[in-house]
Structure prediction request, 314 residues.
Amino acid sequence: MTQGSPDDPRLTAVSLRRDLVAAGWTDHMLVQAVRRGELARPRYGAYVDGRAWAGLDAAGRHEVTARAVVAASRTSVVLSHVTAATLHGTPDYGLDRTDVHLTRRDGRTGRAEAGVRQHRGRLLAGDDVTVRGTPTMSPTRTALELTTMLGTEPALVQVNDLLHRGLTTADQLAQRYENGMEHWPSTLRTDLVLRLADHRIESVAESRFVFLAWQQHLPAPEPQVDIADADGVIRARVDFAWAERGVFLEVDGRVKYEKLLRPGENVVDVVLREKKREALVCRLTGWRCLRVDWADLEHPERTARWIRDELDRV
Prediction:
C-alpha cells in the first residue's frame, strides 16, 4: 500500500479491502494496522495511510472519504453539492459534511448507502471538472447546487467566495441558471442569491452583512469603496459605504486581522494600524465609521436598528 503524495495528505492513496485482500492482507491484519495507526479507515471497505489521515482537517478528511466513495462506486459519478464545494476550497460556514454528495452520470437514482447522498441530475458540457484527480462539479454548477440545499445566507457566503476567487463569474452563473435549472428541485432561493451575490465581497462576515442588510431592509451599501486624497491617490479602501449618508462600515473579525498580518506582527499591531486607517478615512472624507463583528451579525435586528439610527443621523 502506497502513501500517496507526501506534500498533500489529501492525495494519500485509497485502497479498497478487496484489493488489499487480493494482495495478501487478511481482515485481522487490517484491524491490527488500524489499531496501530498505520492505516485509517475513512469508510467501510476503504483504507488510507494512517499518518496522512491524522494530518488532515475536517475538510481534508471529507475529501479523502469522498475519493473512497468514488473508488468503490460501480457506476460513473461526479462529486457534487457540499462535497464539490469542499474540493473547491469554499469556507466551512453552512456546510454539513456528514455525508458525501455525488451525482450519477446516468441520471438514475442509486440505492441508499450510509454516509452517501446520491443526487439525480443531467450534466451539461462544462458542468464537471477534475480536482486533484477526482471528477467534481465545476465551481459554477456547484454554486448553483448549493443554493438548492442551503439557506439563503450560507448559500450567499459560498457563492460569493467562488466569485471572489474568480472560480466562476456572474455571467456564467446566470447562463447556467437559465439553461435547464427550471427542472431542478428547491430552486426558489437561487434567483435571490444570485441577485445578492457580488464578487467584491471578500469574507464570510462581509457576505453575512450583505444578507443582514437585505433581510433587515437597510439601504444597500456599496462594497469595497476606494478612498482617495486630494491628489486622487488611493489611500485606503473600506468594506462598505453609504457615501450619500456620510457613513462607512468595517466588518471586524479575527480572520480579517490574521489576513492583514505582516511579517513579525501580531493581531494588536494590525488593530492599531486599522485604527490609524480609520482615522485617515474619516479625515479624508468627513464620514463616520461604524464597526460590526461576528457577535453583531448574530443579532441582526438589534444591529440593523443601530445602523439605521446611525444612517438617519444628520
Notes: The first helix runs from residue 17 to 22.
